[in-house]
Structures are given as structure tokens and as C-alpha cells.
Amino acid sequence: MQAPKAKKIAQLLETHGHQRTDNYYWMRERENPEVIDYLNAENEFLKTSLKSTEEFQEKLFQEMKGRIKEDDESVPYLKSGYYWYVKYETGGEYPLYCRKKGSLDATEEIFLDVNLLAEGKSYYQVAGTAVTSDLKTLAFAADEVGRRIYKIHYKDLETGEILADQIPAITGNFAWAEDNLTLFYTKQNPETLRSYQVYSHKLGSSTEEDILIYEEKDEEFSCVVHKTKSKQYILIHSESTISSEIRFLDASNPTGEFTLLQARIPHLEYAADHYQDHFWIKTNRDAQNFKLVKAPIAAPQLENWEDVIPHRETVLLEDFDIFSDFLVVQERSNGLCKINIKPWDGSAGHSLEFEDETYTAWISTNPEFDTPILRFGYNSLVTPASSYDYHMVTKEKTLLKQQEIVGGYDASAYTSARIWAKASDGVMVPISLVYKIDTFSADGNNPLLLYSYGSYGFSMDAYFSSSRLSLLDRGFVFAIAHIRGGEDLGRVWYEDGKLLKKRNTFTDYIACAEHLIAEKYTTASHLYAMGGSAGGLLMGTVMNLRPDLFNGIIAAVPFVDVVTTMLDESIPLTTGEFQEWGNPKNKEYYEYILSYSPYDNVEAKAYPNLLITSGLHDSQVQYWEPTKWVAKLRELKTDSKLLFLHTNMDAGHGGASGRFNSLKELALEYTFLFYLEEMV
Questions:
Q1: Are residues 631 and 529 part of one domain?
Q2: What's the rounded Cα separation, in Å, for the pair 493 and 485?
Q3: Does residue 386 share a domain with residue 328?
Q4: For the chain, what percent of residues have pLDDT higher than 70?
Q5: Which of 36, 187, 218, 370 is most enclosed, with most CB atoms within 10 A?
Q6: Which domain holds residue 585?
Q7: pLDDT in tens, 622-672
Q8: Is residue 270 part of a domain?
Q9: Euclidean distance between CA atoms 238 and 227, whole angstroms
Q10: Residue of 629, 568, 564, 571 whose CA lies nearest to 593
Q11: Could you tell me if residue 388 is inside a domain?
């Protein structure tokens, strides 16, 4: 079967006197039958080309599914006299939300069964749930398309009845007031999907009576609404990439006026919680790596901010949690997470100790103030996800649950490490890696999958994956490149990988690939790259720069048509990301983005084998970006290597819904890698 050919219709695009010809601009026409036909043809081409692997794909799927405990549940946490948890039952794709009153030995109440709600639907996702303080009414948000446009539903937890009230076309973000009747929620712009309005809805009333509380008019900002841990305040948090602004309201007075905490200032970021008579604020005010301050509720403006944890040049303040007797702080230094305990009485604090060389640790769900117990999470490349309770006085650590790997898992059969690669400008970039000891070859001929992201300040921590065992057990090394653009080594690590320094992200990744080859972990003929979304941009750019480094690349929902997207303010996310990529209406940014934009830099040359995935209903990376990219690659590339596009016609940015359906897509990706290995 021959690969599909897309028709060429020249579209001339001109900016700053520079002209670009886009032959595939027409693929933006979502309702055009020719577009749908092309996507279906690409899917059929992939299916036919890999038909010989269908049995292996099914084997991988069953293998990965078989490691997951089907009748599983989260560790319950105590809140408002109930233990709350989520569980799955054998054969169920979707979760059941449960609670027990007063004791874990009490009768279980399933207050939301998503399996029942999803019956007969090709996609269904519950984005969030919230229960009123009197514990009588549940609000939950559901998406039935995958475009992250939700509808709020209500359920009477005393009668079990789904109420008639519905709020359509919302973001999935909401918070209850303390009157147990008023729900604050956010709406998105119907065209750009930017979250820009906050409404209040009174249970039992028509949505036509909903009150617009706040509208964010600056197109670079979006807003969310949430409640403080104390339940005393509702916060509206407006945020751009470089600035924040918070308004607060007494949650027991939902018809009152919101008060501005601190007006937005360019490059001032802050986030707040409440305890006693102060707001506690994480901020970058004179603190690139952030610091913790407090401010009196009666006068919370900037001039009244008092340092609690000062700024440190080598430590990034990531998060904090407040208890009646302790302040708990999540920090990052030298690329690794730390959790520090600080008593309010002034006595000496201490840190939790972790043994793995590379790992992830985080403050987990802690809704209660008056407790000496801290719930935290931990995993590593070799340690399954683990939930702990830590007694902050006795320092006793209790493992509540570790992810069970059905069929058994021997951590000692695998090893993980952290190594460092020298970037082109001399900066040292960390790499986390894992492999199975008895399949590793010291001669450098190991197949290796190098994963990365490198944008928005998202740190790409070392994490455990039971599905990844299907790679490791067959001889693969798995590595994560902690490149600039993330916050892995502090805020400066992010600042040095954005805007006019974005090329550092790409050259860091290339340096990591070269280092893994030089250190004989792999060779170019056995090296594979993988990234998704902005990580897909990374894939597209590095394969333009160094196609010789990789045998194969998987780009998932890739952001690759950067110039055109960032010039189109009607597309979701564009305006809010000018401070990440730059605004190409500015000539300097236009030329810089154009220099690396994957779609604009496709050339007539040989490329690696490629698998590119997409979602027709993707609201974050529009389906046409990977589709156009594939069409242009088919037109220009000079090699005969594999090029596949797989579009999920029923899903969006996150892929298939349900805990097992997504494994079918992962099985396809892994099959692609093994298929290429057989061809080496």
C-alpha cells in the first residue's frame, strides 16, 4: 500500500515582509470531508503497514494491562469526618468515587460510578469533583468529546439522585461557597478556549440567572477559582506566564465583593493560601527561585509582605502546606526534590531522607490542619508509586501503599542512575536512566529511548511506569533528559530555555543524545527519541538539526507549526503563551521562532523513521499541526524510511479515555520501536 498523498493548495502567508508558502493550510478545515478522508487514509496506511505486528501489539497490550491490579483503590484520606478514596473494579475502565464515614471499617458508599455514566460513549472523562461542606451535594464536571469542554452535573448524596441542574460549556474548574448552595465556576472563551470568566450559580436556579463575577480581559491571562485549605476564602487567581493577580472573598458570604490581594505587576508571580489571620504567599518578588512570605488579611498588599523563607540561589521553592503545628515545604536542589518540616514553635526543623539516586517526591493530599501526620508520595525509576504517612513529631514513616505490579516485580533486577552531559555552552545537563541489569550490554548496542519535554517550567522527574517494563525486559534502556525549559535545576533552568533562549532546549537534548552514545549506552542506530505536545516540538526541531542521531522518533500530539499558530490569536492557548515562545508580531521573535519551527524547517533530506500521533478533538495542539507536518514530510523527505500518522478520531490532547484504552496507543508506540529494532 502506498502512503496517502495530500493535495497541494498554495497559501501565501506574509509577515514582516517575509513570505511563506503553506501548501497544506487547507487541512485546518475540520468539517471538510477531504480532511477526514486524509486522516482515515493515514490511519489505514499505518494499520496495513504494521499488520504483521497486530498480534504483537495485542500481546503488549495484554501484558501491560496484566500488570495493573484491576480491583484497585487509592489510599483513603480523612476530611470532614469521612475517608475519601477512588477505586477501580475488575473489567472497569473508569473510576468509582467512594467514602466511608468515621472509620475505614464503616460501610462503603459509592457516590459516583463513572462506568455507569460512560456507558455507550466512546469518550468520557470526569475532570473534577467537589462536595459541599455539609456533605450533602456533589458537583462533578464531565467531558464527552475530549476537547476539555465540560458540563457540570449535581448529585444529591442523601437520595442518590442526579439533579436537573446542569451548567454546560465550562472549563471543569469550580469551588463551593460555604452556604452549600453557591458554586463558583469558570467559563472559557468559545473560540480560543481561554478560561476568562468566573460565574456564580445557585443550586436550583436557572443558569440564565448565573452572575458574572469576574472577567479577565487581558488575553495573555487566564483565571481559575479555588478555595483555601481553611475553607474560609474563595480565590480567583488570574495568571499569565509572567504575572499573577488574586482576588479573595469570604466563602461564607458568596454574594459579597471580591477584594484584590495584590494588583498584577509584570514579572511578579504569586500564589496564596490562608491560615489564621494571614495569607501565606509563594512569590518570585526579588526571588528568582521563589520565596515564602506572609501578609495580614486586613492589608495583604505587597508592601506588607514579610519573609518566612527567604530566597536561596540554589534552592527552588516548589510548594508548601500548612498544619496547625508545622509548615511543610517542597523544594528542589541539584535537580532533586526535598521535603522539609518546620515547626511553628521555633524548634529545629528536619528533612525527609530518600535513598534512590534519582527519584520523585511530593506533598500529597493533606486537607486537615490539626494533625501531626503528613501524607506524601514517592517513586523512582525502579520504585513503584508509594504513599506514606509521616509523623512530624516522632519522625516515624509508614508505607500505606505501594503500587502493586500484578505478576510480581523485583526491583533488584533493575538499576537506575543519574549522569551528566555537557551542553554546547558548557552547562551540565542531568540525565536519569534505568535498565534491566541482565539485558544490558556494555558494548553500547543497547536500544535506548530518550524522553524529554523541556517547556513551561515543567520539571520532568524520574518516575516509575509498570508499562515501561515491557521495554526494559526486552533490552531497552530508558532515559529522561532534564533539559533547559523545565525547572529541574531551578527557575534559571526555565528562563534559559524559553523565548530567545529556546534553542538551548534543543541543543541540550542533542548533547544528551551524544553523551549517551559516547558513554556506550547506545549507538545512533539503536537510539530513539520521544516527546509529546511541546515535547513534540522538541522532536521536530532536533530531527531537523540532527536527523543522523536517531533511528526512530515518536512525536505525540506535537506542537510543530509554531509560527502560524502563534500568529493566530483565535487558536486556543496562543495569547497566553506569548511569554513562553514570544509574539511573532514582533520581528525579532518572528525570525527566531521561524529559525526552529519544525514545520517551517522541513527540508529535502533524509529523516529518521517517524511515528506521529494526534487527536481530532485536541484543544491544545490542533490536529492539523501534525497532519500538515506529515504531509510536508511526505512531500520533501528523500529517504524511504517509515513515516506514520495515527489520529485518534474520538479523543483530544490526552488520548483515549479510560485506564486501559490508552494502553492500546502505548502498545502501538512500543511496537513501532521493536519493529525498527528488528530492521537494524
A1: yes
A2: 6
A3: yes
A4: 98
A5: 187
A6: 14-65+418-677
A7: 899 999 999 999 999 999 999 999 998 875 545 454 667 889 999 999 999
A8: no
A9: 14
A10: 564
A11: yes
Q: Give pLDDT tens digits for 345-392.
A: 999 999 998 989 999 999 999 999 999 999 999 999 999 999 999 999
* Residues with catalytic roles: 533, 618, 653
pTM of the predicted model as reported, rounded to 2 decimal places: 0.91
Q: Which residues of 579-615 are buried (b: 16+ CB within 10 A; e: fewer)?
A: bbbbbbeeeebbebbbebbbbbebeeeebbbbbbbbb
Question: Which residues are paired to 418 by β-bridges?
Answer: 432
| Cell, residue 223 | 483565571
User: Does residue 511 share a domain with residue 643?
Assistant: yes
| CA 276 – CA 265 distance, rounded (Å) | 27
Cα gap 15→40, rounded to integer Å: 33
| Per-position b or e across 367-402, b if 16+ CB within 10 A of its CB | eeeebebbbbebbbbbbbbbbbbbebeeeeeeeeeb
Q: Residue 219: inside a domain, yes or no?
A: no
Based on the domain organization, do 431 and 385 belong to the same domain?
Answer: no
Question: Same structural domain for residues 549 and 574?
Answer: yes
Residue 511 lies in a domain: yes
Distance CA 360, CA 460 (A): 9
Domain total in the chain: 2
User: Is there a contact between 513 and 530 (Cβ–Cβ < 8 Å)?
Assistant: no
Q: What is the pLDDT of residue 355?
A: 84
**Per-residue pLDDT tens for 305-337?**
999 999 999 999 999 999 999 999 999 999 999
